[in-house]
Each structure stands twice: as C-alpha cells, then as structure tokens.
Design a protein that fits this description.
heterodimer, A: mainly alpha, 3 domains, two-stranded antiparallel ribbon, 23 helices, about 75% helix, B: mainly alpha, two-stranded antiparallel sheet, 2 strands
C-alpha cells in the first residue's frame, strides 16, 4: 500500500509534473492545486482510519496495525532472508569434488568462517534493534508503518509511521497546502517555480512529521529549509534577502547542533542506530545524566530556534514581514510546529531524566513564561499588522512549552492541541493580513479604520480568527489554552506546581503570570480589531475595496469552520484520537524519569 | 630469465595505453587537418574532440570489463591492477570525459581550438591512471611527471593572457620544486629500505631516521600536488589563470590522481610500526589546518573562480580525514570515504567550473559575483545546476557531497579522531556562507551592470553539466551502491582498511 509514502511524496510528484514545460500557466496552477488536494484526501483517509483503529486497537488490520506488530514481522523476514542468503552463499562456495575438499587451506576456512559469521552477526544486530523497537510501548500506537533499509552503510532506515502526536500536524500540513496554493493564484512572477517549491516544501514538512529514523528526520528537516529560503528570498518584500539569510543561518546553525547531538546518540548506542524507537528503549537507561543534559540542550537549541523560543525568536518577525502571505501562513501554521514536535518526539522520550530534572523544568517553564508575556507585549507595541501577528505567534507558542514543561496528561494534550489550533488560527490571521494588504498595499495599523463597513463578510470571518487567537470560549483556541493552564496548574501531576519535595518546582506563580498572556492577547487583539475594522473610514480608497473574492473565501472559510467545530466538539473531532498516544508518551517519560 | 614484457599483462594497462594512443592519434590527425582550419568550426575540426572522447570512452570500456577482477601485481611489481586502482582510474576518466565533452564549444568561443589541447588532456589522463596504479617508486615519479608536464602546459594554454602565463609559471616552478622534494624523498626511502616496491616498503627492515626523512620529504611533495595547507600557495593563482575548464579538469583529476597515489603510499608505508601513529598525527594537523585555512580564506574572495580555488583547498582537508582515519592507531576507520568523496567531488566541482565557463568569456569581469547576478532569470537551468553543485559542496542533504562528508566524519570518529570531525562540521557551516552567497546573487538579486552575457551553452557543456547535476542529486538519494563499491575497492586492495 505504501500509503504514507504516497502521502509524503505526492506533492513532490506533483511538483515534478508541473515543472514539465508543456502546461499553460493556469493549467499548471490547477494541477498543483489538484495534487495538493489529493494529498489532503490521502491525509484525511489516514486520519479517519487511524481514529477507527484507535477505537478498537485489537481489530486493526492492514496499514492501521501498530508498529510493534509490524516490527515483529520484520524480524521474522530478516531471519528468513538471512537463511536463504546463507544457503546461497554456502552453495556457491561448496567444493565441486573430493579433491577440492582436501585442498582447502586453513586460511580459506578461516576466511569463510569470518565471512559467513559476519552475515549472521549483521542479521542478529538488525533483528535485536527491531526487538528493542517493538517492545517500546509507544510502538503500539504507531500506525501506517513503513520500514525499509535505506543506507545500510550508516544503518539509516526509511522508517515512517504516524501516531496521535504527528497525525494532526500532518493533516494540518496537507490542509494548509491546498489553501495556500489556492490563495497564491495571483502570484504571477515565476509562478511555476513558486508552485513547485511550495510542493517540495510540503513533502519535506509531511516527511518531518512522519519520519521515525533520526537521520531521515534530519534529511526532511533540511529539505524544508531550502525551499523556504527561496520562497522568502525570491517572492518576499523589499528587505527579503536579509530576512531569508537570517532565517537560513538561524535554522542551519540549529540543525547542525541537532545533527551533532544525533551523531552522539548514534555512536553511543550499540549497535549503532538512528531508529528513534530503538533509541527510546535504550538510551534512558544507558546514558549518564550529564551526557543526557548536554544532548538535551543541543537538541533544545535546534528545536527552540524553530519554535521559536526567546531569545532565538528574532528571525521570525523579519521572515514573516518579508514573506508573501501564503508563505507566512505555512511558516506560522506548520514550520514553527516542527520545533514543538521535536520536543515531544525526540527530546522528552529520548532524554527523560534530563528533561525532568529541576533545573531543566525551571529553564523551560521560565522560557515559556517569557515567550508568552514578552511575545504579547511585543505584539502590543507593533504598528505593522503582520509583525503583530508574528509576535502573537511567539506568545502562543509559549503555551506549547508551558504544557510540555508540566508533563501532565492535560498539559501535554493541551500543548499538542495548541500546536494544531495555533496552526489554524495563525494561518487565518496571516490570510486576513494578506487580504487587506492586497487591497491597501500597506500594513500600517494606524492608517486603517472602518474596514468593517466596506467589507462585512471579510470582517465577520476575520473576527472568528481573531477571537480564536484570543481564546474565546466556543472556539478552538480556548480549548487548548484551558487545557494547558489546567494541566500546568494540576498540583498532583504538573511538574511546575507540585511541591518541591515531589520533584516538582512548587512554583505556582509561573502559571499565574502566564495567565497574563491571555489578558494581553485580549488587549492587542481587541485593539487591533478596533483600529482596523471599527471606527470611521480613514482613507477614501478604502471605500472602493471589494469584499472577499472566491479565492480568499476558499482560503478562509474552511479554517473558520474548523475553529468553530473543534471549539464546540473538541473530543470527538480530535482530542479522543490524540489522547491515547500522548498519554502513552507521557507515561513513558514519567516512568523513565522515575516520577 | 623472465620475460621482460609479459604480453598477457598488457590487459591490465589497456586503459592507459588507449589514452596515450588516442592522444597520439589526435596529434597526428591534427597535423593532417591543419589545412582545413578555416572556418574553425568546420566538420573536420569536430573530429578531434570526437576522437578523444572515443579514446577515453574505449579506455572506460576496458576498465569496466576488468571491473572486479582479482588484484594482481604486474610488470615485475611495477604496477598494481586492483579494485582501488580501477576505482580511481574510473573517477579520473569521468573527469576527463566531462572535460572533453564540455570544452569544444568553450574553446571555439575563445578562438583557441587547437588539436594539442585534446592531446594534452588525454596524455595527462593516461599519466594519472598510471600514477594511480603505480607500485614502484620509479613508475610513481615518471607518471607524476608525465601528467604534471601536460597540466603545466594546459594551465598556460591562453598564452596571450598575462595572468595565464603568470599562473602557469608559478605552477610550474612550485610543481618542479615539489617534484624535487618527492624525488629526494623517494630516494631516501629506497636508501632506507633497499627496495623500490611500494608494497615491500612497509614490510622490509628499515633504517629508521633515513626512512622518516624520506617519508617527510615525499609527503611534502604530495602535499604540494594535492594542495595541502601550507603547501597550497600555487593553487589560487594557477587556478585563476588557467582557462576555466582546464581549472575544472585540474582541480578534479589532479586531486584524484594525487590522492590515489597518496592513499596507496600512506597505507603501505604506515605498516611500519614506527611510521603509522606519527604520520596519522601529522596528517590530522594538516587536515585541520587545510580545512580551516581553505574555508576562512574562501569567505573573503571577490572572484568566484578564486572562491572555488580555495574551496578546492578546503576539500583537500576533508579528504585527508579519510587518510587519518585509515592509519590511526585505533584502526577503527577506513579510507573508503576518500573514494566516495572523490567521486562526488569530481561531479560537483567540475560541474561548478563548467557553469562558470559557460556564463561568458574568460576574464576577471566574468568571474565576479556580480557576473552571476540574476542568472536564474537569464539561464534558469544553468543557475539551477549551479545551485545543486553549491548545495552539494556545502554538504547540505540530499546531495552526494553531504553523504561524502558524513562518511568521512564518521570514519574519523571510529578512528578516535572526533575533534577532526568536529572541525570538519564547523568549517562546513562556515563554507555554507560563501557557497550560498553565489546562490543568493543568482536567485535573489536582479541583473546589474556587471552581469555576464550568459550565452547559450553548447550542447556538450549542457549535457555534461546536466549529467553532473543529475548524478549529484541521484547519489544524494541513493548512495548505497557507490558506498558499497568504495568499501569493496579499499578492501580488495588493502585488506580491511
């Protein structure tokens, strides 16, 4: 079936098709959108199957089976292959006659022993790696498993699967892919390259969320970097080169530090492996706390730059301001989540003891606090509409860190949901900025006013987006923020608030002060609505602004719909499906950390 | 009395003989075609590149036929025909073929299409192939001189240009000096051990001080040839002065040949218990110095050609890691990555020079970064190929250069030289800056005053560039076969190293 491979590489395939020089421009755009839409359909199919399998795990068949079962089968096939390989090899070396048997020298015998033994040992190494992987509890939740050796020399495997942690992000990527391509219909310079780069970017993003081999993950991570760099640097605003290079250097430095940590994992584990499920089973037991802490910090820098966590966030406003609308949408909607996802998938499960030591909880909780409050203050101070939204992203990603630091069921659920809902709300906000920028050709908040009168539909939908971002009950942003706060407050579980004696910090004030972020969000968002949509029309031009075009409706309405549906029915739509995986993950980390 | 010229062993040097024969044939044909020189692009003139491509192709065919045959020492120990020599010859032939396919249009554009150009390229390639297989100090030296002389002339091929003459002269003088060092070193080694056979040098009883002196002198000679810091000073000038495609040819094939001999030399000589660890230590320092120097200086170059020259120096540093890994006392590493890296290096570096040679007439004005401004609008495919080469040179996945570096660094860690790997990784980050600077100007800056004309590249150049770019990406996604081949070549030739 290779469903996940199709899902990941379908955008790339589409990119290849549209690059053929035979299409007129509009056909090419149409094909790109169709390609992205098919990707979205595949993602939706996987998500539906996944939730069915989650409901009745025992009965799951085919690609929806858990990774533990698939890996066990792989061990068997490895052994069968070894058997037939050995038989062939022995047969090829079999002497033809009795005389030949006598003439076999001692050296040849020894060489043969080494050669045949090596093969068996290699198979044993591979199989034992899979044994470890299949016994990690997390493995039972991973579905749509695909496992094949990619580069044997380095023991890198093509290991892909999805679980409750990655699936929402994969689905979100596929959704935003369609919406952004539709929205980008008006790009008329270098259209083909733009669409192709965007599709390559989508492949990279889906790959990042599906890869379960550390190295494969790294390769996808880098595949994301280059198209993004081009998309900002070529189609961006006036200061685009500066922004693109800043984005590139920040991310590259982060990814190289991540690579170094990855190589340490590889060399320190026997047998060497990049398979993170195997690493999850092996490393917490074998690494010293000091090494764990160093590795954690190295990974932290790599991921924190992407999130972005203060003080690594300065590339974000620049990149957002310069990037074209659709690219800002993907940047805020999905790219930032690569960092958050990295914490959940790699940092915490691989290095549980380092992650839960007191100093580290302090460190992350304080950074979360700074992100939330400082980001909100920065947002409040902006005159540029897009920069305001960019800083609000910094603030909102702080909630993800806060939920993570608490390491409680609710906190983790909230943090992952926050990544998803922020993906929807920030995408909406950037579309909203794009819509007004296309008409006014500026983004100065002080020069807007009275747009609500001219563009009622636009204003209505925009309000949904703003209120989601603000965390109004009934919309999806509220659910995730409430979960994060309840989870990090929860004195029985949250590492932030449980009394200091029980390995927690006992620092309730962190949660109190973080709550300030919600208030500040209300301030800057309500103020923005007032300045842009309410009041008198400040400029005669604004009276001629048409309301939403079809393309803009297509981009905005599905997102607004999701805001409401998830806001009203969070459990059946998403929480029920992601909770088991996240609970498993949290349990594993807590257990390994001795909590 | 043994047969002085065993005919059945000729098979093993058939590729070399074919290259020399093709070179001679080109010279003779050129003699008869002289009368038809005008117009310069007439059909008879086309015969010469065709003939030389045919010769190199035939050499490749016979190489392929011998691929995987059992290692043999032939001609009374003068040459070794083993998997390593085959692999290196293959890479040299690849560089040669790319050069031959690319140059015709380039030379015509510069009005200097003479038959001896092709002949010299083929003579150089033959000498290099011999150099890669040499198992005897005399053959080693003679083949070195054979290809060096040809390359000196090629470097000064644009004899009316001041910088070409200056560069070539500098190259010649420094090269002569290096040959002197090498020759003296080889003489010392002979004196110390009483044998001229490389595979015996590591095993015979030796006179310790003389041996070490010989080792040091000959390493200096090799260091000049492959451009190790601090013996690199001729490279920027010679590379800048030579016709761009000759620079491409030099930078890939001379380096490949140099490393072929160096690997053999170092692996054999380090069998002497006293030499191994010390040699590893010295090479590690040289490697680190070369990586740091090459990358640091490349950062500040205003000319793309000089930038590529310094980048070539830095890649020598990366390649040295493979040698260190193979002879380090821990014996955990292998020099197999050198083979893989040289292949990727050949594709990406020659590709970069081919693009540089295609964007305009040679001359300082077409080698600046400004000349590349807005190239993506004028020649999108050419710019894309350059992008691929730059990403690969910088070591960003998924490209051949990335796996090459990763493989080298991994072997360094296996051999216990992790600081060397760290230096490699850090200098690679530095290199990203200057490689991507070129991408920035190609894609994100509009064409300005100094932008090059970027004429349509000839079909040969287009073909070679496209093939190299495609190979870089294909190897980036599926490196497995080539990695296996490089391990096999080292194992078959030297045992487990």
């Amino acid at each position: 079936m290779y469903t996940l491979t199709w899902l990941t590489f379908f955008p790339l395939l589409t990119a290849g098709v549209i690059l053929l020089p035979i299409w007129p421009k509009s056909v090419m755009k149409f094909l790109a959108v169709v390609g992205a839409f098919i990707t979205f359909i595949i993602a939706t199919g996987i998500a539906r199957d996944y939730s069915d399998a989650e409901r009745s795990p025992g009965a799951a068949q085919g690609p929806a089976r858990g990774a533990d079962a698939v890996l066990k089968e792989l061990i068997e096939s490895e052994l069968v292959q070894l058997g037939s390989g050995l038989i062939d090899q022995v047969r090829a070396r079999l002497p033809k006659s009795a005389d030949e048997v006598k003439s076999v020298s001692e050296d040849t015998r020894k060489a043969l022993l080494v050669e045949l033994g090596k093969k068996g040992f290699h198979a044993w190494e591979r199989a034992s790696e899979l044994v470890v992987a299949s016994s990690v509890p997390q493995a039972s939740r991973l579905r749509y498993v695909e496992f094949a050796p990619w580069i044997g020399q380095f023991k890198i495997n093509y290991f892909m699967a999805v679980d409750g942690l990655s699936l929402p992000l994969v689905w979100l990527t596929a959704l935003l892919g369609v919406l952004c391509l539709v929205y980008s219909w008006t790009i008329d310079q270098g259209t083909k390259a733009y669409y192709a780069l965007f599709l390559i970017l989508e492949t990279g993003l889906i790959g990042v969320f599906c890869a379960l081999d550390f190295f494969l993950f790294y390769v996808f991570w880098e595949i994301v970097l280059l198209p993004m760099w081009f998309l900002i640097g070529i189609w961006g605003g006036p200061n685009r080169i500066y922004a693109a290079i800043k984005f590139f250097i920040y991310t590259l430095v982060g990814s190289v530090i991540m690579l170094l940590a990855m190589l340490v994992f590889y060399f320190k584990t026997e047998p060497h492996t990049f398979n993170i499920i195997t690493l999850m089973g092996l490393t917490p037991l074998t690494y010293s706390l000091q090494l764990q802490t160093m590795l954690f910090l190295a990974l932290f820098i790599g991921f924190a730059i992407k999130v972005p966590v203060f003080p690594f966030h300065t590339w974000l406003p620049d990149a957002h301001v310069e990037a074209p609308t659709a690219i800002s949408v993907v940047l805020a909607g999905v790219l930032l989540k690569m960092g958050g996802y990295g914490f959940f998938r790699f940092s915490y499960p691989l290095l549980p003891q380092a992650a839960t030591q007191r100093g580290m909880i302090w460190f992350i909780a304080i950074l979360a606090l700074i992100n939330i409050v400082y980001g909100a203050f920065c947002a409040m101070a902006q005159k540029d509409f897009k920069k305001l939204v960019a800083y609000s992203s910094v603030s909102h990603m702080g909630y993800v860190l806060l939920g993570l630091a608490s390491l409680s069921y609710m906190g983790i659920d909230g943090a992952v949901l926050q990544m998803f809902t922020h993906g929807i709300s920030s995408a909406m906000l950037f579309f909203i900025v794009g819509v007004i920028y296309d008409r006014a050709h500026h983004r100065d908040l002080d020069r807007f006013g009275g747009i609500g009168l001219q563009m009622p539909w636009y204003t209505g939908i925009a309000t949904v987006g703003f209120f989601t971002s603000l965390g109004l009950p009934g919309l999806c942003g509220f659910i995730s923020e409430v979960l994060v706060f309840l989870g990090s407050w929860d004195t029985s579980m949250s590492l932030i608030t449980t009394p200091a004696g029980d390995k927690g910090l006992g620092a309730r004030w962190i949660v109190y002060v973080s709550l300030l972020g919600v208030v500040l969000a209300a301030v800057y968002i309500l103020w923005t609505i007032q300045r842009v949509y309410l009041g008198n029309v400040k400029d005669e031009h604004y009276k001629h602004f048409p309301d939403l075009s079809f393309r803009e409706v297509v981009a905005l309405v599905p997102l607004a719909f999701l805001c409401v549906v998830i806001g009203l029915l969070p459990n059946p739509t998403i929480l029920n499906h992601i909770d088991p995986s996240l609970r498993e993950l949290t349990d594993m980390v807590r257990k390994a950390a001795g909590l | 009395m043994t047969n002085p010229f065993p005919l059945e062993e000729v098979r093993c040097i058939l590729p070399v003989l074919l290259l020399f024969a093709a070179a001679t044939a080109v010279l003779i044909a050129d003699l008869f075609l002289r009368g038809w020189n005008e117009p310069a692009s007439g059909p008879p003139k086309r015969l010469l590149p065709m003939l030389s491509i045919l010769g190199a192709g035939a050499a490749g065919f016979f190489l392929w036929r011998d691929w995987g045959s059992a290692p043999a020492v032939v001609f009374h120990g003068a040459l070794r025909a083993d998997a390593f020599a085959h692999a290196m010859t293959a890479i040299i032939l690849l560089g040669t073929l790319l050069t031959l396919v690319t140059t015709a249009a380039y030379l015509r554009r510069h009005g200097t299409e003479h038959g001896e150009f092709y002949a010299l390229i083929l003579y150089a390639a033959g000498g290099m192939a011999l150099f890669a297989a040499a198992n005897n100090l005399i053959v080693l030296f003679v083949s070195l001189e054979t290809f060096s002389l040809a390359v000196y002339i090629l470097a000064g091929y644009f004899r009316d240009e001041k910088r070409a003459v200056e560069g070539a002269l500098k190259y010649f003088i420094m090269g002569g000096l290096a040959s002197g060092f090498l020759l003296l070193g080889l003489a010392f080694l002979f004196g110390a051990s009483g044998t001229i056979r490389l595979d015996d040098l590591g095993r015979s009883p030796i006179d310790q001080p003389l041996f070490l002196a010989g080792l040091g002198l000959s390493m200096t000679g090799f260091g000049f040839k492959v451009g190790v810091f601090p013996f690199h000073s001729w490279i920027p000038d010679a590379y800048e002065g030579a016709p761009t495609l000759v620079t491409g040819f030099m930078s890939v094939t001379v380096k490949t040949a140099g490393f072929a001999a160096l690997v053999r030399f170092v692996l054999e000589l380090s069998r002497q218990a006293e030499a191994g660890p010390a040699l590893a230590q010295v090479l590690a320092w040289l490697s680190a110095g070369t990586m740091i120097f090459g990358n640091a200086v490349a950062l500040v170059q205003g000319s793309v050609k000089r930038m590529l020259a310094y980048s070539a120096i830095s890649h020598t540093g990366y390649l040295l890691i493979g040698l260190v890994a193979a002879i380090a006392p821990e014996r955990g590493g292998s020099s197999a990555p050198v083979v893989f890296y040289l292949l990727s290096y050949t594709l990406m570096t020659f590709g970069a020079f081919a693009v540089l040679g295609s964007i305009g007439q040679d001359g300082p004005e077409n080698e600046t970064f400004e000349a590349f401004h807005g190239l993506s609008q004028r020649r999108p495919l050419l710019a894309f190929a350059m992008l691929v080469f730059m990403i690969s040179l910088a070591g960003i996945p998924p490209t051949a250069g990335f796996w090459g570096k990763l493989y080298l660094f991994r072997e360094a860690v296996y051999a216990g030289y992790w600081p060397l790997a760290l230096v490699g990784i850090l200098t690679s980050i530095v290199s990203v800056y200057y490689y991507l600077r070129l991408v920035v100007v190609m894609y994100m800056q509009p064409a300005g005053e100094g932008a090059s004309a970027a004429p349509a590249p000839g079909w040969g150049a287009a073909l070679a560039t496209a093939a190299a770019a495609a190979a870089v990406i294909a190897i980036g996604f599926f490196p497995q076969t080539l990695l296996d081949q490089s391990v096999a070549s080292i194992q078959a030739a030297f045992g487990a190293r």
